[in-house]
Amino acid sequence: MTSTQLHAPVARPLHAYLLLLCGCMSVLAAVVIAPILPKMQTHFAGVERVEFLVPMVLTAPGLVIAALSLFIGAVADKVGRKRLLVVALVAYAAFGVSPLWIDSLHTIFATRIGVGLAEAVIMTCCTALIGDYFRGAQRERYLALNTTFASTSAVIFIAIGGALGEFGWRIPFGVYAISLLLAPLTLLLLWEPAKRRAANVVQAPEADELSWSARRQLGICGVTLAGGIAFMAVQVHIAYLLQSVGVVSSAQVGLIASLAQVAVVVGSLLFRSVLRRGLSTVARLGLSFGIVAGGYLLAGSAYSPEQVTIGAVLTGIGCGILMPTLQVWNMNTLPQSHRALGTGAWMAAFFLGQFLTPLVVVGLAGYSGGIAAAIKVMGATLAPVALLLLLQASRQRQAGASLIRKHDKNIRPLGND
């Protein structure tokens, strides 16, 4: 053990919770302005293709994360995670609050690209530092809490965005300044992990090392891309769905959107029960996509705010099961030698799906007759997919049971020779 290792700071829950709070900035970027999108679109009504640009203001950071998630980790290894994290938190605030004073939709879109860059750095460095500071069960616990923090903070940020939206569409952008409170705490409380010497990190190869399959990874990323679109479609367009049934209050939109985020938390908690029941990945995908499809169909054909709310809640529960299903599926197929690459590919696929969401929904709306009709079409598409997945899971389970019975039948009792 080196002298540096002997005098290294001891990581405590305080450090983990600070990193988890910093990680919540990625959720803030995605949800706090969702309730004010219709008002923003009205303000910029004279801008060409405003119906595409305004929703993309919300999802543009996801495109940056999709593009850069494979590369930022390498930069953090070279220049240090803590330094990058502090700079990114400051940049996040600077880019995030800029629309308070900007009156050009295209310039606002450019600032959102800056938010996405800062967000990508924050997510990468926070996750890496949790991995650096903690080991074993502690590390797994704090990484799992990341989902809980994200879903819970989404509920809070949507409600805040809706309430502040009553004072004008610009006001919610001021919430991005919260990262300026976290930057000095990060500077004072966190430390740069000492780099381990090569001689100290040589490990024997894992006995159960999985083989790397690019085709399998591509398939997982394809399903994850669809999952990213499914996850964001109602979140991005909840205000439009409610507007179609007569709800124009930003506060009310924010409250209903918050309920949908609570449903995501509920779904993520139900995921543990699903795991305990021993359902396969195919069955979990079928279950989650089926619940999302039901929520889409209800929200897309709604005639009242209550129906939209129930549909959004159903969608949230389904997405709460879907997200950890996709993550566990991906992680369980990755050998250690390709784990970072596979994780980066998964993140890129998911956030690309988020970015493409308004393009898909608005594109469908042009053919189907509106946002609500587009959501209904998406539900009608997902429903048979979910049914096919559940049927496939059932066949797999029956085939497995048949093999077990055949194996048991072929085992002769002792003493019959």
TrEMBL record:
Residue stretches spanning the membrane: 16-37, 52-72, 84-102, 108-130, 142-165, 171-191, 218-242, 254-275, 282-303, 309-329, 341-365, 371-391
All copies of domain Major facilitator superfamily (MFS) profile, residue ranges: 15-397
Pfam family, one: MFS_1
Main subcellular localisation: membrane
InterPro entries recorded: MFS, MFS_dom, MFS_Efflux_Transporters, MFS_trans_sf, Sugar_transporter_CS
Membrane topology: Multi-pass membrane protein
Entry keyword Oxidoreductase: no
Coiled-coil segments: none
Top-level taxon: Bacteria
Protein name listed in UniProt: MFS transporter
Organism: Vogesella oryzagri
Lineage of the species this protein comes from: Bacteria, Pseudomonadati, Pseudomonadota, Betaproteobacteria, Neisseriales
